[in-house]
Design a protein that fits this description.
Length: 199
């Protein structure tokens, strides 16, 4: 028996495919049916696994939902901010892809509707998904202002709200975030960000 085998915890090894299916099913059901109707039983049926398979991993629905939110597509693959304009395009592309893949706006909406009964879920969504992405973009904008590549005195917090808010508003009013949307939204706000031309 190898050292790795001796160190492995007793019992059957975790099925990584089942892990992925459970998380994907949870995100789908949150978007399609809302938080209240997303039960462990419903997730098991959607993922085509037994309830015991889900319960072995997550003993409660909040634990399952938190795990699913933590697996939401991230923005770790964004390029370095050498070119702020292109960085913003990539950031908005990652945002669009996340909305398309997991319907993040619908998930946020259902957690908001249940904010009084389950405020911790909306807080979890903000902490795991919204705040890290917005903080990354704002940090790049703040650095651009400090380096002089962006307009002095720029309200970077408001710019971040404008960029992400434009996408959320578009989805909530029935629109689709097309392949061209990330560059269009950056092009629309860029005149507000660029420093004035040198006289």
């Amino acid at each position: 028996m190898s050292t790795d085998q001796r160190r492995r915890a007793p019992g059957r090894p975790r099925n990584q495919e089942a892990d992925r299916e459970i998380i994907a099913a949870t995100l789908r059901l949150l978007a399609e049916q809302g938080y209240e109707r997303t039960s462990i039983e419903a997730v098991a049926a959607e993922a085509q696994v037994t309830r015991a398979t889900v319960y072995r991993r997550y003993s409660t629905k909040p634990e399952l939902v938190c795990a699913a939110l933590g697996a939401y597509p991230g923005s770790e693959d964004l390029p370095g901010p050498d070119d702020v304009r292109e960085f913003l395009v990539h950031a908005m592309t990652a945002f669009r892809d996340g909305v398309r893949e997991c319907d993040g706006v619908a998930i946020c909406s259902t957690l908001y509707l249940n904010r009084r009964q389950h405020p911790e879920m909306l807080d979890e969504f903000a902490a795991r998904i919204v705040e890290p992405r917005q903080a990354r973009v704002r940090a790049v904008l703040d650095a651009g202002v400090e380096l002089g590549s962006l307009r002095a005195g720029l309200d970077t917090e408001m710019v971040v709200a404008m960029l992400f808010g434009a996408g959320i508003q578009h989805v909530l009013t029935g629109g689709d975030l097309s392949e061209q949307w990330p560059r269009r939204v950056v092009d629309a706000v860029w005149p507000l960000l660029a420093p004035p031309p040198v006289a």
